[in-house]
Design goal:
The strands form two sheets. The chain has a 17-stranded parallel β-sheet that branches. Strands 2-5-7-9-12-15-18-21-24-27 form a ten-stranded parallel β-sheet, with no helix packed on it. By secondary structure, it is mainly beta. The longest helix has 14 residues. It is built from one helix and 27 strands. The N and C termini lie far apart (43 Å). It has a domain of 112 residues.
């Protein structure tokens, strides 16, 4: 039901975009070295961007994965039910948003805006995030001297009354320059700091384990 509702609201909005490449039940593939200005949108398909590409629009999927090759540049990324994988040295100039899929970033990735998920895990290695990491249910791992200039925000789940265990691991010299804030006191959040990982701000409503 949630997927149908999401589709019902998202698809009319997508087809209103001007200069937009919209595919239904088909995947989008951009070969190495391509430069495109239009948004790349698919419903029930994958989006694959090769190495050394530049997409001056957004990548958007409903029920599809997104994969971006090395040294490519993208304006922003949005997916509902799909994974997001960014390979080495990818640059995202806006936000990266996922509802139900995990996000993983290889070394050298740079994201100017937020990374936000609802149910998806966030795994970063030697990645720089210009703003916040935001999730409701996802596990977060920062490794390989990753840097988050903003906060880590664990949002309140308005539709559940369950106790929610959730882990945040900050390791290998990774740094969160802002706070870690847990909005829902029903969440049992553990922050693990190891091998030089640190949070420069304040940690709210979470248990800290230092190794």
């Amino acid at each position: 039901m949630k997927t149908r509702l999401t589709f019902a609201f998202l698809f009319p909005a997508m087809v209103l975009f001007t200069g937009c490449n919209v595919q239904v039940n088909r995947s989008v593939h951009l070969g190495d070295g391509r430069t495109v200005r239009a948004d790349q949108v698919t419903v029930n398909g994958q989006i694959t961007v090769g190495s050394d590409c530049e997409v001056r629009g957004n990548l958007t999927t409903v029920n599809g994965n997104i994969r971006v090759g090395r040294n490519s540049k993208i304006r922003s990324i949005r997916t509902v039910n799909g994974t997001v994988r960014l390979q080495d040295d990818v640059k995202i100039y806006g936000k990266l948003q996922s509802v139900n899929g995990p996000v993983s970033c290889d070394p050298g990735v740079r994201i100017r805006g937020d990374i936000a998920t609802v149910n998806g895990n966030i795994d970063l290695r030697q990645t720089m995030v210009g703003r916040n990491l935001v999730t409701t249910h996802g596990r977060i791992t920062l490794a390989g001297k990753s840097e988050v200039d903003g906060n880590i925000l664990i949002k309140r789940d308005q539709g559940s009354h369950r106790i929610r265990p959730l882990s945040i691991e900050i390791t290998e010299g990774s740094v969160v320059r802002g706070d870690i804030r847990v909005a829902d006191r029903r969440s049992v959040v553990t922050v693990s700091l190891s091998r030089g990982g640190q949070v420069q701000g304040v940690i709210h409503n979470a248990t800290v384990v230092e190794e």
